[in-house]
Amino acid sequence: MLPVPGLFEYRLPVTLITGFLGSGKTTLLNHLMRHLRDRRAAVFVNEFGAIDIDSQILVTVDEDLVALSNGCICCQIRDDFLMAFRRVLAYNQMQTSAGKRGLDAIFLETSGVADPYPLMLTFRATELWSLTRLDAILTVVDAETFTAEYFQSQAALAQIQHGDIILLNKTDLVDDEQLRSVETEIQRFKPQARILPMTYGQVPLSSVLDVDLYSEDMSTDSPSGVQHLQNDGFVAVPFESDRPFSLRKFQKFLDYQLPSEVFRAKGVLWFDESPHRHLFQLSGKRSQLQDEAWQDPPRNQLVCIGRNLDEEELQHQLHQCLAP
Ligand SMILES: Nc1nc2c(ncn2[C@@H]2O[C@H](COP(=O)(O)OP(=O)(O)OP(=O)(O)O)[C@@H](O)[C@H]2O)c(=O)[nH]1
Predict the structure, then answer these.
(1) Left if phi > 0, otherwise alpha if psi is -120 to 50, otherwise beta: which for 46?
(2) Atom of ligand 1 nearest to the CA of 47
(3) How confident is the model at residue 7 (pLDDT cuts 50, 70, 90)?
(4) Structural domain that includes position 208
(5) CATH number at residue 264
(6) For residue 17, how far is its CA from the centre of ligand 1 (angstroms)?
């Protein structure tokens, strides 16, 4: 049970959702939002890259969603984040003072290449610490790509190190042996880790919300004194167009031209041959297209994320996929 807002010393619980690129953070967030029932949560999403795709995938009421996509909330846009957060808290205060329904929780999804530690320090070093309560840091881990990708990324390791609960996602893609070996690896790295296996972010809400697990013994670091990981060497290449792709050309691009260094891609795609809006996701070697109806005028928005990408060449290749 969540405590009743308005009680003395009630502080809004904040759940920080972290995890590597494509591990399933937004999928988890969608699961949480869908099962909140009569509770209400505000959502902050920090995207890596300039185009905000996540807010188009998320199930939320628009006014409860804050998308922060032009930099990392732990450094480049820390002030914007704080301002947006303060605005949400002030609005919530106004609503509850007027006897209206307020928020029960705040969810904050970090970008896949972010170390959550500087963000934790931001909470610690500002008035957010007394106005809210960091309930838990949930770290989503992709059980399938764990060994290959995680130990090459400082950010991914920091996410596991600081996680209060490690949500081992995509269990449908691995066998029992792989699952056990990932659990063993995580426990070797973090002996006290609480690990919960899941598929498509489906966990009982009671096991991840209002769990009061955040207990990080913070050092005396200040946010500005902590080194930011410089996106861990990853870059995000954006592509936008008001013209549709040719499905055939885009498929050929995926099959034969997509650089192997692209680890993650996501976008909202428009194909000449289709009346639908297509949600495109690529994570590791897997990709999927989901059909939906257009609510806005059709256009293409895509972000490709990886290391050592040739931005100009990639954009040129995508441009070549446009229908004549
Ligand atoms: N097979 C399988 N796919 C999953 C599962 N969970 C998520 N996915 C897929 O993995 C892809 C990435 O999921 P997201 O939830 O967008 O991942 P994310 O961590 O938010 O990604 P970034 O914000 O880009 O770092 C999507 O195509 C999801 O549908 C799962 O349990 N099993």
Answers:
(1) beta
(2) 23
(3) very low
(4) 12-228
(5) 3.30.1220.10
(6) 13
